[in-house]
Structure formats: C-alpha cells, structure tokens
Specification:
Layout (H helix, E strand, L loop, with lengths): L25 H21 L6 H10 L12 H12 L5 H5 L1 H21 L2 H11 L3 H6 L6 H20 L3 H17 L6 H11 L10 H14 L1 H10 L3 H10 L20 H15 L2 H8 L8 H24 L17 H15 L10 H19 L3 H10 L4 H4 L4 H4 L2 H13 L6 E4 L2 H10 L7 E2 L23 H7 L4 E4 L3 H4 L3 E8 L11 E7 L15
Helix pairs in contact: 1-5, 1-6, 2-3, 2-23, 5-6, 5-8, 5-16, 5-17, 6-17, 8-9, 9-11, 10-16, 15-17, 22-23
Length: 553
C-alpha cells in the first residue's frame, strides 16, 4: 500500500501504483507555478483578444473608485485599480494579469482541500489537473471578469471551513470570516456557501473536531464576514438601493429596475427551457468531467469514513448555489455561469473517483471497458483541446474564412465578443475627426461604451443611453452624475453638441438629436444589427428612464 507524505495513515484509495509519484506535494506546486508563468507569458506576448465588454466596464469602474457599484461590490474595481497603476504602460495585460494569480490560488486551495478531505495527495494533484482542464475556468484564467477572484475566495473558504470543522484549527475560523467578507465584495452569491457549511455542521456534528472555544470563534467568523457588507450597504443606502432593484429586476418582479412580468397582477409564467438551458449550460462550464463528479456524489461510493465525509462536505459546498438558481429558473432565465462556484466542487470529487477507480482496476482487466476511465480519458483530451484552441480562436476564424465558410458558420467562433473593439474605436475616432472638437460618443449598451472609453485616444468620457432606449435598463453610467443623462448639469454640458452614437436604430436616436444619419457598421464589428450614426445637435432626454429589460451590467 502507498502512504502519502502528507497523511501517514494508509488511504483506502492507495491500493495500487497509480500516480505514486504524485504522493509528494511538489508535483502540485510545480504544476501551479508552470501554468501561472505560462498564462502570464501568454497574456503579455501572445493574447490576440481585445477587452471584452465586461472587462472594459470593470476597468471603467476602476477609474472611479467607490464603496460599491450598481450591480457588483467594489472588489473587482479595487483590484483593477491596483493592477493598472502597477503596470500603467502594459495595456490589456495590466487589466488581465490578476486573473492567472487568482486561478493559481484557486488551484492550490482545491488541491489542498482534496488532499485533506480524502487523505491522499495524489487526489490533490489530480484535482489541480482537472481544475485546469475545466473550460469555464480556462476562460476565466485568461480574461479578468468577476469569476476568478470570486472562485479564489470560494475555494479558500471551503478549505478553511474544512480545517475549522475537522482539524480543530481555531485560526481557520477567523480566516474563513475574512475570506467570506472579501468574496462578498467581489460577488454577493458567496453567501450561498454558508448554507452548505451549516449543513455540514448539523449533518456531521458527530464527526466534528472543533477547537476549544469554537462557539466564540464561529461568532467572530460571522462578525468578520459581515464586514464585507459594510461598503456595499453604505453605498446602496446613499443611492436608494440600486443593487436591490437590479437583482429584483433580473426576476422581473415588483420593485426591480425592469418592467414587472411576474406577480403584481401580471400573473406567473414558466418556460421549461429556462431550467433545461441552465442545466445544459453546466456541461459547458465543466465538460464531461461533470459526469464523473456526479457519479462521485452517489452515497456509498466511498468505503471509508473519511472518504464519505469528504464527499458530503465538498458536495454540499456546491449544492446550495445550484439549488438556488434552479429555483430562479422557475421564475426567469438564469445565465448558465451564475452557478460557476458550484463547479469548484467538480474537480476534487472527480479526482477522488478517478484515483479510486485506477487503483481498483487491476492489470488483468485493464483491457475491459471502464466508464470512469473512459470519461477520464475523454475529459483529458477535450480539456487539453479546449485549452489550446481558446488561446488562438482568431486562427480558427481565419481558417474558416480561408476555406470560404459562410458567416453563419464563422459565427460559431465567438470572435465578435473577443476582438474588434480597437478597430471600432479607430473608426469612431475617424468619424469624430469630421465633427467639431467638442463632439462626444454615446452608445446603447454599457459594454460598448466602456470599450470605446478604453480604446479611443485619450480615453475620453463616453455616455450610455441604455436606460432611455428600447426598454433598456439602468447601468453604472446612470449612477455617476457626470455620465447620468438625466442629471441637469450633464444635460447642459452636452446640449447642442454633435456625437457619434452606436447601436440601436435611427428611430431610437432621433428624439435625442436634431438630426441623425446612419453610417453603417463600424470596422471590426462582427455583430449584426449594431450600426453607428452621426448625430447632430443633442437635445436632451424626451422621456424618463423606462427601466426595461436590457443586459446585465
């Protein structure tokens, strides 16, 4: 039997020679360091992608530091302020460079959790491998959006909670509170980890190994965690609780920032595709490895107490957020990636099942079909392919163009989201050159406004009219007084000036300007139905914000 260097007791999983070389911790650390350096080098020298809309918008937030923002806490903006000031001359790299570090932190936290929970460092190493093959997190490790820092906080919270509950580590309670507070200012749904931890405290109360004075430590943990509520609460109280309205707006219920479509005399409706699409999207995040994780969730999979305990703990860390969004899908259509934190449980569960299976499969039956081994090999192949392909989707796109593929086929490659913002800004700059020097830029969508603010020369102030066009919804641009089109001072500053406006239709913009002329699609814009216009003589807003059903900022 193989004993690990981390845990002296023999593991039920360590019955054979599988991955014996990974029993030391060095391979896991080496893997994380190599991938961290590789990701940083890629972003610095080989990444072909311009900022996506959310990256641009969070960068826009970082130019105006505050206690919180319209749809999210301040964590992402504060992080971007630090990285862009640390590397001011490095362009997109200064915005994205934090993502690989958060990815590395997440990998180490999950690997350590798996080693602790299943008493086998081989499972920790395989957890690190699997996590780096999950498509959703491969993307999140390249682009700086909210998901990676949120995942880092969630995974650290899982590790610290396990050690507080089952290793008697008193300091872990305090660190857990700090990580939950930090996670909240990145993304509010980290609070959905708490029900899973509470489930463990109740269900496995006879297995707990708690430090002396743990009740005091638990209270201190909750107090520290609540510190994360402070900046968000202060900001929302100062701005009439826009975040609450934004979240209710997603549900289409009364009190939200969108028209009421559920309840309040409107009746209740349900489309089964909301739930089905959400479930299908989960396989897009983790790929076929999700099937292995689900198989590992079956009661009785583990024949040892620590294996079953680890399974339950890791499973219930991810279960509440999935249950929550399944309930949301009964009211509205949730985005598939809203539950991405649940997929942090996928890697350790799948890794434990794979190691157990490899140990149990003897040489004599290696030629027989084994579904776990088959899914493992398939996941490895697809994960590596996905990771390589997504590094240079522009090559795939050029190849399709070279063979004469139709536009509908080329749209399968999402280059319209990943490139072209710089070319669009260059085109807008040429259009502005033909207008008076005080001409400005206005867009229908917050994301394009943020991209233009980043890529236009001198990074000027750009305005977003989302809340006033075609039932759009409010964004952070409507909160800042200097971009709020309903603010009297802003309106006076813009009155009579010409503009380049982007998105929407001619009829959308005509009420806001004396004359509007379409100039067609901007260079580099691969999305259909997003023309640009020359608009002369800004007149101001004819109507109050509609608060419709626009995109999530």
């Amino acid at each position: 039997m193989i004993a690990t260097s981390l845990h002296p007791e023999h593991s039920r999983f360590a019955l054979g020679p599988s991955l014996a070389w990974a029993s030391a911790g060095l391979p896991t650390v080496a893997l994380v360091v190599v991938l961290l350096v590789a990701r940083l080098a890629y972003l610095a020298f080989w990444c072909p992608y311009t900022l996506i809309e959310d990256e641009g918008h969070y960068w826009e937030w970082s130019r105006h530091l505050d206690w919180s923002y319209y749809s999210k806490g301040p964590g992402v903006a504060w992080t971007l302020w630090l990285t862009t000031h640390a590397f001011p001359a490095l362009g997109e790299f200064s915005i994205r460079c934090a993502a690989p570090f958060f990815h590395a932190i997440t990998t180490l936290a999950l690997a350590t959790l798996a080693s602790d929970a299943f008493k086998d460092r081989r499972i920790g190493f395989l957890t690190a491998v699997i996590f780096n093959l999950l498509p959703g997190f491969q993307i999140a490790g390249m682009l700086f959006v909210i998901d990676m820092p949120y995942a880092a906080c969630w995974s650290l919270a899982m590790l610290l909670a396990y050690r507080a509950f089952f290793a008697g580590a008193g300091i872990s309670w305090l660190a857990l509170g700090a990580v939950l507070a930090l996670g909240f200012i990145y993304k509010y749904t980290i609070i959905l980890l708490i029900p899973g931890l509470a489930h463990t405290l109740f269900w496995d109360r006879d297995r707990l190994v708690l430090a002396r004075g743990w009740r005091f430590l638990a209270a201190a943990c909750l107090f520290i965690a609540c510190i994360g509520l402070v900046p968000v609460g202060i900001w929302n109280a100062q701005h009439d609780w826009p975040t609450i309205k934004h979240l209710l707006g997603h549900l289409g219920v009364e009190g939200g920032d969108t028209p009421v479509v559920q309840g309040a005399g409107k009746g209740w409706s349900y489309n089964p595709m909301w739930t089905l699409d959400f479930l299908i999207a989960q396989f897009g995040i983790s790929g076929p490895i999700l099937l292995l994780a689900l198989a590992a969730c079956r009661p009785g999979t583990w024949n040892t107490p620590h294996g079953e305990l680890g399974r339950r703990f890791i499973l219930w860390c991810g279960a509440p957020i999935v249950i929550f969004y399944l309930l949301v899908s009964l009211v509205t259509e949730p985005e598939g990636n809203w539950s991405i934190a649940a997929h942090l449980s996928v890697a350790p569960l799948a890794a434990a099942l794979v190691v157990q299976t490899l140990d149990r499969v003897s040489i004599q039956i290696v030629a027989r079909f084994n579904p776990v081994r088959f899914l493992w090999h398939l996941s490895m192949i697809l994960g590596v392919l996905a990771g390589v392909v997504m590094l240079r989707l522009d090559w795939i796109d050029r190849g399709l163009e070279a063979v004469g593929a139709s536009d509908s086929v080329r749209r399968i490659v999402p280059m319209s989201r990943l490139s072209g913002a710089d070319l669009q800004a260059a085109h807008v700059s040429r259009l502005l050159a033909d207008l008076p020097s005080n001409a400005f830029v206005m867009t229908k969508h917050y994301g394009r406004a943020s991209q233009m603010a980043y890529y236009l020369p001198s990074q000027p102030r750009v305005y977003c009219a989302s809340a006033y066009l075609d039932n759009g919804r409010r964004t952070q641009y409507d909160v800042w007084h200097f971009t709020d089109l309903s603010n009297q001072a802003t309106a006076r500053e813009l009155l009579g000036r010409d503009a380049v406006v982007m998105g929407g239709t001619l009829s959308d913009w005509q009420p806001l300007f004396n004359s509007v002329r379409e100039v067609g699609t901007l260079d580099g814009d691969r999305k259909r139905g997003r023309p640009a216009f020359i608009a002369l003589g800004y007149k101001g807003l004819p109507i109050p914000p509609s608060g419709g059903s626009g995109a999530n900022p």
